[in-house]
Amino acid sequence: MKKIVHLLTALMLLVSFMSYAQKNEPIQIGWQDLRGKVAPYDDPFIAFTDEQFYNFSVYSQIKEMQELEPTRVTEEMRAVAKDAKQKLVQENIDIEHFLQQRTIIMHKRKQSENKANELLADKNIKMSGYMLALEFDNGLVTEFLLVPTVGACSHKPVPPANQLVLVKAAQAVKAGNAYMPITVTGTLRITHQSQDLYLVDGSKNIEMAYTLEATNVAPYGR
């Protein structure tokens, strides 16, 4: 009887340990998972033809420049804007309406780019990306950006805030080559913040939606 009790006790402990281990097992995620859910919205510009979109873009950009920096607008630019406007009017496009919609859509796109995934807040996660070191100390780094593509923030445009992760490594890591592919495991925090990034081609102010803390850094795929 005692042997049965001991076996049952051991089994219960094993089940309890397995349950605990599963709870603490990191969630494997991809970059798409970092995008937060936003309310769907209609984009009226989808119905534009390529030519209409081009003419509207040219007209709206020159119009905005005239309002903000009129001295930069040349006669040639005014002529181009006038021609683009005439073509849009001929196709019965309500320019003022779409100018208002452009502002609304730009705001909604910005919201979408900044929105973090609340479901991942404070979760133990595992994901892969590329290391962009912020500061070096004898070739070692403890803090860096995890970016989705090679060249992001440097030779390519800065990704949206919800596609940048500020990583704080548990131990100093050898930086290796620029944009070294890595796999990171740690606690994901939602921490909207901005930071100046100094690179060879100049400085940039970047916005980040996430911080990964107590992070283990390993070569890609491990």
What is the general shape? elongated
CATH architecture assignment name of the largest domain: Beta Barrel
Which residue ranges are poorly predicted, with pLDDT under 50 across at least 5 consecutive positions?
A: 1-22
Number of domains: 2
Descriptive report:
This protein is α/β, with parallel strands linked by helices and 222 residues long. 35% of the residues lie in helices and 31% in strands. The protein contains 4 helices and 6 strands, in the order αβαααβββββ. The chain has helices at residues 2-24, 50-68, 75-90, 95-114, and strands spanning 27-28, 123-133, 140-147, 165-174, 180-199, 202-219. Strands 2-3-4-6-5 form a 5-stranded mixed β-barrel. The longest helix is centred in the N-terminal third of the chain and has 23 residues, at 2-24. The protein is elongated and about 65 Å long. The relative contact order is 0.13. Residues 1-22 have low confidence and may be disordered.
List keywords for this structure.
OB fold (Dihydrolipoamide Acetyltransferase, E2P), single chain, DUF3299, 35% helix, signal, 2 domains, elongated, five-stranded mixed beta barrel, DUF3299 domain-containing protein, alpha/beta, 4 helices, 222 residues
